[in-house]
## 1
Amino acid sequence: MSMDALLYWVGMAAVAVNALTGVLDSGRKQMDLIGALLVAVATALGGGTVRDLLLDRNVFWVADQTYLIAALGTGLVAFFVVRRRSLPPRLFLIPDAVGLALFTIIGTQVALQWHTPWLAASLMGVITGVVGGVLRDILCNDVPSIFLKGELYATAAWVGALTLIGLQELGVRPVDAAWTAMGVVLALRLFALRFGLTLPALGQPR
């Protein structure tokens, strides 16, 4: 598989997964169909939109509305599947971890292809990975989890982005580097959730 094909299909999967997390989280607030779809679309497309605006490139879902259709379609299906079910409050965390891994690597690789310096490219990966979740939390009237003491989130994304860049600098094929880096993000995030790994917080006793 070429890198362009990988970016396209992984990007589509990331949009679908993040739209699902948006619907799952909006279910806690008992939103109606339109509210849930708005949360789903913001979660699925928000990070990539901010990345593209910062890179001064065509916004990906405007250039190819298939991404928008995927977000709306996934959100619509998810809404009717879960609307009558009692959902555990942390159910969205697993698909959210998958979406974080997918979008982080896509964002980093897109920035690298746009000839962005490596440090800025890694931060573009983090932005792509986490901004959708920030928008989801805001629309659900929650403090964004990235700003609260909690299990590694943006840190996992940044480690994965730097892994992608480092592997490519070492001569690893871009596609292989991308899959490896996605695995790093996902493993680190799931490991943090399982064992409660966090960074030091302000006001925390030494």
## 2
Amino acid sequence: MTLPCQLPDGVVLRRARAADLPALVRLLADDQLGATRDGGDLEPYRRAFAAIDADPAQLLVVAEADGAVVGTLQLTVIPGLARRGALRAQVEAVRVSAARRGRGLGRAMIGWVIEEARRRGCALVQLTTDKRRTDAHRFYERLGFAASHEGMKLLLGG
């Protein structure tokens, strides 16, 4: 299921473009946690987009409907020695616009991720979700994800 990919409800998944950045930042900020940490000056997002877009192990995806960005996610393929040298698919920054939540778009996006990970030869799909996002935990569990590990982060200044 390579990109672009047609999803139900007239949504198309495609690779993000630099012109999508304002809409992507709005999606990131329209969130209980993102509201305090995302938004504002687009320059740091432009730098990040350029790095993501240049890296073949990274894929920034948008869900588009009627010319508007209504969802996003980032897929990273990580090679590793563990699990007999298995590739892992890491999913980050999954967001669906408030107007589209509860209509199956998130499920379709994660379904695409799982199929894309298989296509790329990954042995597993992994993600992290903040402990405060209980709705997200239930969502991922319904899709078959298990809270099998305890994640830890160390915030570095800046």
